[in-house]
# Entry
Amino acid sequence: MSKLVTELHIIGENGNMFDTDMEYIIPLYQRAYAWEDKQLTQLIEDINDVAEDSNYYIGSLIVSKQFGRYEVVDGQQRLTSLYLLLNCLGIKTKPTLTFACREKSNYTLRNIEELLLENRSKIDMDRIEPGIQRGIRILSHELTKDHFDRESFMEKLAKIIVYRIEVPENTDLNRYYEIMNTRGEQLEQHDILKATLMSYLSDDSEKGLFAKIWDACSDMTGYVQMHFISKNNAVREAIFGSEWNSMPPNSWQKYKKAISGTTQETTGHKICDLIEKNFKVEDDEGYVDGDVRVRFESVIEFPYFLLHTLKVYVSLYGVTHEIATSKIVDELLDDKKLLDAFNRVVSCGITDTGRIADSKEDFARGFIICLLRTRYLFDKYIIKREYANDSADGEWSLKSLYVSGQQSKKKAYYRNSKFTRPGEWTRTNDWRTKTNIMMQSALRVSYTSPKVMHWITKLLIWLSEADCKNIKNDAITKFDKVAENIAIDAVRENFFQVCSNGVYAMGVNTPHIVFNYLDYLLWNDDRNGKKKKYSDFVFEFRNSVEHWYPQNPSEGTFEQWKDGVDQFGNLCIIQRNVNSKFSNMSPEAKKSTFKDMIVKGSIKLRIMSELTEKNGDKPASLYWKERAYKAHEEEMLGHLKKACNIE
# Structure
C-alpha cells in the first residue's frame, strides 16, 4: 500500500482513530456539519451489518498535510460523525478534530459529555452549534434503544476501516475540491458493475447501447424518459411513444433500431452551443395544472434501485441457485454488497434455459431491458416527492409524464397516474390515486432504511409479472390493495403473532408500520364518512414511539405507572425532534403544550389527546391510566384486527 494511504481502524487495541498527535482540521470552504437521521441511522445500520469474519471498509478520508496537521479535503461529514459516535459510546477521544473559524462547532465538540448528561448549567447553550447537537441527540437515541446490543456493536466497530488518503504535495486544493465535487467522491460499486456487465457484450455498438440505457436509468431525478436526449425527441418517441408514456419494448432489436447511428445525442453540450446567447439546458422539470412548475425526487438512490431490479429479474426469469439449498439473492438490500449480489446471480444462477454463466451476453441484454422497464414502472407507480416551483416543502406524488405541443416544441407535463378502468371518471381516478399515495407513504415512513424497503420490490414484481399484464387490465384498480396487503402481512407477523394472550405491550419496540397502518385505516374510514376530520392528514417521518402517560414522570409531579405503561393504547408515534421535551410530561401537559404538533400529528395521537379529559373528580392523567387508555386500545385494535382478519 502507498505511503500516502493509511488504514485506520475506528477502534483497536491501541486506542481509536483520533488518538493521534496530528490534528484534523475542517477548512472553512467545507460546509458545516449536516448529517441527520437518514445518514446517521444508516451509519449505525452499516456497522451492525458487519460480518464476524471480515473487516469492513466504510469509506475514505482525503487529507492534505498542511503545517503539521491534516486538512480534510473530503469525508468530513463521516469523520465528524465517527467522532460523535465514539463520544456517545463513552469512548474518550483526544481533541484532534477542529473546525477552522467555526467557534461554535469547536465549543460543541469539546462539550459533548456535558450535552449527553444534559448538564446545561455547565455550558453556554448560546455557543452550541445546532447541527452537531442534533447529531449527538440522534446517535444517543439510537444507542439507547431497548434492542441495542452494545457488546456486539463494539465487536463490529472494531472491524470497521477507513482509508486515509493524503493528496500529493503542491496539489492545488481548490482545484482538487472543485473536480472532486464535479465528478463525485470516488468510483462507486455501481460504476464497476456497469463496466463488468458491459464486458459481457462483444460488440462495441451493443456496449454503447447498454451504456446509454444504463446512464439514463442511473439518474434518479425526474422521469427516465427525460434522460433520453436526441434531435426532435426521436429516441424518446421510439422507446416511449409519441406521448412519451408507453411501456418500453421488451426486444433488444427494437432498442438497437431506436438508439443507433446518430439518433442519440450525448447529454453533454458542445462549446459552440454553450456560448450561444439563448442556450438553455433541457431539464427534468415539467408542469402540472395551472402552469405550476414541478420537479421530482426519488425515494431511493440508484444502487438500491439496481438491487430491486435484480430481484425483479430473478422473479421474472425464475432464477434459482445451482445449489438448491442456497439463496440466489439476499433478503436485505445492502448497497455495500451490490457487486456480490450480481456476481452470485451470474456465477450461480440457473433458469429454464440453463446456467447464466454460460450465456452472460444474454444476461447483460436481458438485465438492461429489465432495468429500463422497471424504472418506467417505478417512476409511474411508486411514490416520489414532488416540489412545486421553488418550494422546499415537498408532497407525496404519483404522476405520469405526458407531453404537450407539437414536434420539436413538445414539453413535458404531469398528471395523476391512471388506476381506473377505461371510461371511468377523472375524479374516480383522483380518489384512487389519493388512496395509493396514502398507502405507499405509510409504508415509506415505516421503513426508513433503504435496506428494508421490500415493499418496493414486491410492488415492482407485481407490476412486472407476465409482461406487465396487471397494468393492462382492471387489476391496476386494486393496486392500493396490493400495497395494503404488504402492510397487513407485516402487522400480522410483527405485532399480532408476537403479542400473546391478548396482551399488546411491546412499548417502544412496537413496529412503526402498526401505527402507520392504523392511521391509514382511520384516515380511510374518515374519508368515507361524513365528518372529514382528517382530510388534512399526511404521513410524515414520525420515527419515535413514545408513551402518552410517561414511563418516568417528572420528579414529584404525579405517580409512576408500572403495570400498563407499555400497552398499545398508551403509545403514540411522533417526530424525534420533540422526543426529549415530550417524554416525561403528563398527558394534560402534553395536550396543552404541544397543541400545534398534535393537530398535525398522527391520527391516533389526535384521538388520544381528545380523550385526555378529567372525569368527575378524577384528573385527566389518572382517568387515562385507569380507564380511558383501555377503551382507546380496544377501539384501535378493533380497526387493526378487522383489517388483518384477526379474530
Remarks:
- Residues 262-284 have pLDDT under 50 and may be disordered.
- DSSP finds 24 helices and 19 strands in the chain.
- Residues 620-644 form the longest helix (25 residues).
- The radius of gyration is 27 Å.
